[in-house]
Design a protein that fits this description.
There is one protein chain. By secondary structure, this protein is an alpha/beta fold. It has a domain of 184 residues: Rossmann fold (3-Layer(aba) Sandwich), CATH 3.40.50.300. Helix content is 53%, strand content 7%. The protein has 13 helices and 5 strands. A 5-stranded parallel beta sheet has the order 2-3-1-4-5, with helices on both faces. The protein is globular.
Length: 333
Amino acid sequence: MTDGRTGGERLIFIGGSPRSGTTMVQLMLDAHPGICGGPEFDRVPDIVRLRNGLLQSVGSGRISVFCSKEEVDREVGRLIEGLLLPYAGRRGCEVVSEKTPWNVLVFEDLLEIFPRARFVFCVRDPRAIVSSMLRVGARARAKGSVPVSFTRSVGAAIGTIKTCNDAGFRAAERNDRVLIVSYERLVRRPERETERICRFLDMTWSEEMVRHGEKSHDVEELLDGIWYTREMYDSNPDPSRVHKWRGQLSPYQQAAVVAAFEGDRDLRALGYELSDRELPVTRRAAGRARFKLSAGLENALSKLVSLPASNPSIRRIGRRLLSRAGEIRHPRA
């Protein structure tokens, strides 16, 4: 931050469900000569939660003698800009793009803190997201790591997507500083979609954006082979990957995801046709019933193992059963 303002005019925030295309958008923006986008900063949502706690204390009158809402937002804005903008200076860029998927959960708060910042909400076919999440979990297990919760089962993945999408669509509906970007449209028509993104950002389009795989990025040193591989980072938009989930999800898994999202009006408005009519009738019905039952079981077991008053032996048994409940929905590697 060089001019004392906290309007956020030099900030772009990218968010959306994990595996929804946020990284591709970030790499495209980082390839633009006027924009820099580094690794996920991760902590913006934490800072916003602190801000919200402060505002609660201001509203209750407990700390109102120290600061007002406007002063809290000004100082929080300065903190975030002070952490992010020096990177732009070192890169010789005017604008910083901060890509952490969980940013989407605090878009509405960031819109208040930064009245001139821009936001990109990434959306993708939930079947593709679930497939990608589960494969992340499979790669983690293959490397001896413990998969994060939403990569362990279809039910957990669906819940994460719904939470992120609800926050993103709500923010986009309420503010025109939020741009919705569809992963499928982006990889099928990269030039047109990146031109649309640049118009939204009020910046000149650069053809380098559609060749981001030919450029080095600061985030590459963090590649772990679980979330991303070298091949993923070196690849330019590839429309042939759009429907890879068809060969990665079982009919049961496909039916479960469709059942969860087929009534989603926001996805339908973007052109997502979620249907399992092409699946065999018996597998479609069995898949829906099976995952409805297992999701209910998983929810009950999650509550059981989280009860602090539960017997430790019961909690251990519950965790084992919870793990087994998730295992039946892992895709074939």
